[in-house]
Design a protein that fits this description.
It contains 17 helices and 22 strands. It is α/β, with parallel strands linked by helices. The strands form 4 sheets. Strands 1, 2, 3, 4, 5, 6 and 7 form a 7-stranded mixed sheet that branches.
């Protein structure tokens, strides 16, 4: 079938007036010889968004290579059929965030999955991803679907899948993703969306699911006579135009952590994300309004969730920073929460494991070793971290933290915020700050420094070319530092399955990891170094110098 034929077939079954209008303009223009229109159609139809371990994620628009009602309808029906083949009594809970069309995609999914014979529960309004992940376990359903693109660009949306039962509420992993993808393709190849059976006989979840999440998350702050004293800090909160505020506010109040000053311009869900170019708190400028609000309020801490509230960003006062505030890296927060988790395990005399993605800082393994806690590296993504048996705490450097694995099997930016705020309040009651606590960490475990090099591409073939060049001709040195060992994961490495990852161990112990992003058109480089020699300031300077040299060397290699 030609590209034009595909476009016409798509138009005939598209129920969305906006995407129909796109095609209604492009098709005749392409037929009249407009090269730009033809290129636009090819971009939309010559490939298809693949259902992978991150589900579906892509730009909104018409076509098989975009997120739209036709694609989502095919995905929902294919996933429903796959679930029913697995369990004739299959059930699913569906949630959605505040992005453009998230509510529409969720409603379509509910009607189509119910029409296919799956028992469906739809969350009552736009809510955070961690609440959907919680609901999978809390309701005991077979699966969960979250319509979200998390922290992707404003025009993106996505479709994230969890499995209950023996999967425990974790995200899907291979080979399940491929099996679901094939079920979706079968629907796309044989069915017209308008003829797929639909039903409105699904349940709307009541407030008890939200109440249960709030109560469980607030309980992270202990309320016994032996519990540490907490003096709540004055903090600023931003939802970055996402869905975190309603639930976060309730949790903060229930946990006794106080009422924050909010970034008013960003507190309500808005799929246009008008105040940020890229709704990711890691991106430059994303937290500028939070910094300004904190300066005006005289705050002691900034808490930010990304748009679906599964990530947490933290900033602390720093007179040396241009804005007077310094955002802690994911590795810094991950290490502090890991130290807190180790102390909690020791106090409660419990055994559990720690885990982090292999691109995260080695700092957590240093904490685990000091406390006699078992530790595992995993592939990137919480779909792997959450599956570590007996997990007590896990994190990844991209602002993802799991502090209560029995409640939810995915990163949770709200529960992580509660744990961090409780830590800050305990330190304040003792006359100390998070910055001073970081110095204590570096004194006890060593100073760890990290950096990233991220290369965004428009031509996806560049990613493969860069990885192939590094794999076929690995550098003998990077930034003047000798490479002592190269680990190539392409054929599997140790306990890890085959993955497009290269790890370079440097003379002196530093580490460089290169991999393609799983959700964006990027090559990502992760650099880590540490020092245990000298004072805290000397340790920090030594680790930072190693990282700076390696960062410059990697930029020269791939950019």
């Amino acid at each position: 079938m030609t590209t034009l034929d595909q476009a016409k077939s798509w138009l005939e079954q598209d129920p969305d007036p906006e995407t129909r209008a796109e095609l209604a303009a492009l098709i005749p223009a392409a037929e009249a010889g407009d090269a730009a229109a033809m290129d636009a159609l090819r971009d939309r139809f010559d490939t298809r968004l693949t259902f992978g371990t991150a589900g579906l994620r892509g730009e909104l628009g018409a076509g098989s290579n975009r997120m739209n009602r036709v694609l989502v309808s095919q995905a929902a029906t294919g996933f429903a059929r796959w679930l029913l083949d697995r369990d004739e009594n299959a059930s699913v809970v569906i949630g959605y965030d505040g992005r453009v069309n998230s509510d529409v995609f969720a409603r379509d999914s509910a009607e189509l999955m119910a029409g296919a014979g799956v028992r469906v529960v739809l969350l009552p309004r736009a809510l955070p991803t961690p609440l959907l992940a919680f609901a999978v376990r809390h309701l005991g359903v077979s699966a969960g679907v979250m319509v979200t693109a998390s922290h992707n660009p404003p025009r993106d949306n996505g479709y994230k899948v969890y499995l209950g039962g023996r999967d425990g509420g974790s995200q899907i992993v291979a080979p399940t993703d491929e099996a679901i993808h094939q079920a979706i393709l079968a629907v796309a190849d044989t069915s017209v969306v308008g003829e797929l059976p639909r039903s409105t006989a699904f349940d709307l979840a009541d407030e008890s699911v939200i109440d249960a999440y709030v109560a469980r998350t607030a309980a992270l702050v202990p309320r016994t006579a032996e519990s540490p004293v907490i003096d709540p800090v004055r903090f600023v909160y931003t939802a970055l135009h996402g869905v975190g505020w309603e639930v976060a506010q309730r949790v903060f109040a229930a946990a006794g952590l106080g009422e924050p000053t909010v970034v008013a311009e960003q507190i309500e869900p808005d799929g246009a994300f008008p105040t940020v170019a890229f709704p990711n708190p890691e991106e430059p400028g994303a937290m500028d309004l939070a910094f300004a609000t904190a300066r005006a309020a005289g705050a002691e801490l900034i808490i930010a969730n990304d748009p679906d509230a599964d990530r947490l960003a933290v900033a602390i006062p720093d007179d040396s920073a241009p804005e007077g505030w310094r955002r802690l890296t994911g590795n810094e927060v991950g290490a502090l929460l890991g130290w807190r988790a180790a102390e909690r395990l020791q106090r409660e005399e419990r055994q559990a494991k720690f885990a982090a993605s292999l691109v995260s800082s080695p700092a957590l393994s240093a904490v685990a070793n000091a406390y006699g806690v078992s530790y595992s590296d995993t592939l990137t993504g919480f779909k792997w971290i959450s599956r570590v048996g007996g997990l007590g705490y896990g994190y990844e450097e991209a602002l993802g933290y799991l502090v209560d694995p029995e409640k939810v099997r995915d990163k949770d930016g709200i529960s992580a915020a509660v744990d961090l705020l409780a830590l800050a309040g305990e330190l304040k009651a003792a006359g100390r700050t998070l910055a001073e606590h970081q110095r204590d960490f570096d004194e006890r475990f060593g100073a760890f420094a990290s950096a990233q090099v991220s290369l965004r591409v428009t031509d996806l073939s560049r990613i493969g070319a860069i990885m192939a060049a590094l794999r076929d001709n690995p550098p003998a040195e990077v930034g003047g530092v000798r490479v002592s060992q190269v680990d190539d994961f392409s054929g599997g490495f140790g306990v890890f399955p085959p993955s497009d990852i290269l790890r370079f161990w440097m003379h002196g112990g530093a580490r460089v990891i290169v991999r393609p992003s799983g959700t964006e058109p990027k090559v990502k480089v992760y650099i880590d170094a540490s020092s245990e020699t000298g004072s805290v300031d000397e340790r920090r300077a030594a680790a930072a110098a190693q990282v700076a040299a390696l960062e410059g060397g990697m930029r020269a290699l791939i950019v």
